[in-house]
Amino acid sequence: MSSTTGPIKGSFKAPSRSQGASGRDRALGFVPAWLERLDRPVTTYYVLIGVTTVLVAFGLIMVLSASTVTSLNETNSGSAYAIFISQAVFAAVGGVALLIASRLSVSTWKKLALPVLLIGLILQVLVFTPLGMGAKGNRNWLDLKVLSMQPSELLKVGLALSGGLVLNAKRKQLGNLSHAIVPYLFPMAMLALGLVLMGHDLGTVLVMAAIVGGVLYTAGVPGRWFALSAAGFAAIAVTFVVTSPNRLGRFDVWLGRDTDQFGPARQTIHGRYALADGGWTGLGLGQSREKWEWLSEPHNDFIFAIIGEELGLPGTIMVLALFVVLALACYRLVMRTNDFFVRVATAGIMSWIIVQAMINIGAVIGLLPVIGVPLPFVSSGGSSLVTTMLALGILLSFARAEPGCAKALAARPSLVKRSFAVLPKRRSRA
C-alpha cells in the first residue's frame, strides 16, 4: 500500500524559487488570464498611452463645451470656438512633443536633464524683464509676441529630470545631509522655486515643491529631514498668504468668513452650485448654466465644476479614476525599473501631475482654498498641456526601457503590416 504522505506523481512541476509567489500561483492555476496579462512588460507602456489619450481627448471636449460663452464675450475673434481651436492646436503640438520624447533613449534624457533645467531658469529670469507679463497678481508669463508661455512649466520637467541625474550620482552618500541637499536642493531647486515665488505664483510653487519632495523621498533621503524642510516651507507659504490681501481673501472664503457671492467668494460658491446642479446624472454635455458668465474660469481652473454640472457624478468619478490609473502606472514603472535615474525622475513627474490634480480638484470641491492651478491634461492652457504631454512622453521613453518592453514591442507587427497581412494575395498569371 502506497503512503499517502509521499510525493504526488504526475505532470505537475513545482515552480522554481526564482518564480516567486506569482510564479507558484500561475503554476497552480490561481491567476486569472486578465491578471496575468497585466504582468506583461508592455503593460505600463500601453496604460500610459491609453490614459493620456483619454484625458487629452476628454479635455478637448470639455474645453469646447465650457468655453463657448467666454470665447464669444472675451476674445476678438467673434467665434464661439476660439479657445477650443487654440487648445486643439496646443494638443497637436503636445502630441508631437510626446512622440519625440517617447522615442528618445534614457541615456539621452540623462544628457538633457541639466540643459532643460538651465533653459527653464533662464526663461524664468526673463519674466522679470519687459518680456514678462502678469495676470491676477502673478507675474509668471513670457510674452513672445507670437505666443505666450509659462517658463515655470518647463522648470517642472527640469526639476524631475535633474533630480534623477544628480541623486543618481550621489546615491551612495544620500545618508549624509550635505550630499542629500547639495547641489539638488541647494542651489538648484531653491533657485527655481525662488524665481517663481518672486512672481507671486504660490500655486505653481506648491506643485514644484511636491516634485522636489517626491524626488528626494524616492531617492531614499531619510524621512526625518522632511519634517524640518516642511516646517520651513510652511512658514514661507504662510508669510506669502498673510502679506497678500488677495490670498488672505481666498483663505477667508475657504474658512467660511466671506460668503459674498458677488465678491471674492463668487468663484467658489458658483463652483459648488455647478456641482450641485449636476447631481447624480448631470444636465447633459453642453448644458451648463454656470458657464454663462456666472462661474469665473469655467474652461480653466474650474473646469472640474463644469464636468460635474454637465456629466454629473459619473463624469467626476471617471476623471478621478483616470488619475488613479495614471498614478498606478507610474508606481508600477518605479517598482519595475532597474535604473535609479528612471525611478527618481518618474516619481518626480508622478508627484507633479497627481499633486496638481489634487490641488485643482480640492479647490473646486472646497477641501482646499482656491490656489489657481489648472487640471492637468483637461484645463485650457497651452503651456500646461504641452509640458504635461512632454512629461508623459518621457515616461513612455522610460517604460520602453523597462526590462523586456522594447523587445516585446519590436516583436509585434506594426498596424500597417497587420493590415497588409489580411489582404488576399494576387495569383500569378500562367
From TrEMBL:
Matches recorded under Pfam families: FTSW_RODA_SPOVE (PF01098)
Pathway per the UniProt entry: Cell wall biogenesis; peptidoglycan biosynthesis
UniProt region (Disordered), positions on chain: 1-24
Entries under InterPro entries matching the protein: Cell_cycle_FtsW-rel_CS, FtsW, FtsW/RodA
Superkingdom of origin: Bacteria
Family the UniProt entry places it in: Belongs to the SEDS family. FtsW subfamily.
Name of this chain's protein: Probable peptidoglycan glycosyltransferase FtsW
Species: Knoellia subterranea KCTC 19937
